[in-house]
Amino acid sequence: MGPLALPAWLQPRYRKNAYLFIYYLIQFCGHSWIFTNMTVRFFSFGKDSMVDTFYAIGLVMRLCQSVSLLELLHIYVGIESNHLLPRFLQLTERIIILFVVITSQEEVQEKYVVCVLFIFWNLLDMVRYTYSMLSVIGISYAVLTWLSQTLWMPIYPLCVLAEAFAIYQSLPYFESFGTYSTKLPFDLSIYFPYVLKIYLMMLFIGMYFTYSHLYSERRDILGIFPIKKKKM
Fold it and tell me: What backbone phi and psi angles, to 5 degrees, belong to 190?
């Protein structure tokens, strides 16, 4: 007799898909809760809700973004098919802005740009995680596929602009309070506002690289290629 086949739920592919489905579902629920909370608060309190956005949903946002670092591990070990460097750039953008720029400066947390940035992030992630979650279980909708590969085109550049504006607004506070600035041996020092200004330039360089990658990925998935001119 030949070897007995493993039950479906014990097969590596099934376990991988089950894990990814649960991961995407958790992320979808987290970002949906954030977006719904922000929407309800805006219609209830108007512009006043934008000031304390971070206090209301900052903890859940930080949790979702921290858990998203697992995606780098997913790509590295091969359970998620994606390119490591573009995803690394996208995640580090958010981690730096959220934890270094916003969380460390209470004055920045009250800026309108934080609310705008959270809206952009959650719009992208709700669509992306919905698409990924359904793809894992073999469900595909043309409209959702198109949306997941197109929504980022206007929103991602706006995200980068909002991130850059958040850095710009944070600079006076880093200069005043000296947060993260430190003195080193041999009369050397790290002046963190200069580090942020350098990162500000790198942010737009990274945006060009990421945008190019996402566009290539979109072209491959949707089959959109330049139309060749007919020969006369």
Answer: -115, 115
Residue 12 is predicted with a pLDDT of 65
Neighbours of 211 (CB within 10 A): 16
Place of tokens 């942020």: 196
Please give the structure tokens belonging to residue 32: 């949906």
Adjacent-strand bridge partners of 184? 188
The domain locations on the chain are: 10-222
Gap between the Cα atoms of 34 and 225, Å rounded: 36
Q: In 137-191, where does DSSP find H-type helix?
A: 142-148, 152-177
Q: Which are the catalytic amino acids? A: 156, 163
Distances (CA, A) of 125 to 31, 43, 44, 141, 220: 7, 22, 24, 17, 21
Query: What percentage of residues in the chain have a pLDDT greater than 70?
Result: 91
End-to-end CA distance of the chain: 66
- What residues contact 190, with CB distance under 8 A and at least 6 apart? 180, 181, 182, 184
Question: What letter would DSSP give residue 223?
Answer: T
Gyration radius from the chain CA atoms: 21
12's tokens: 């590596």
Tens of pLDDT, residues 2-24: 454 545 545 667 888 999 999 99
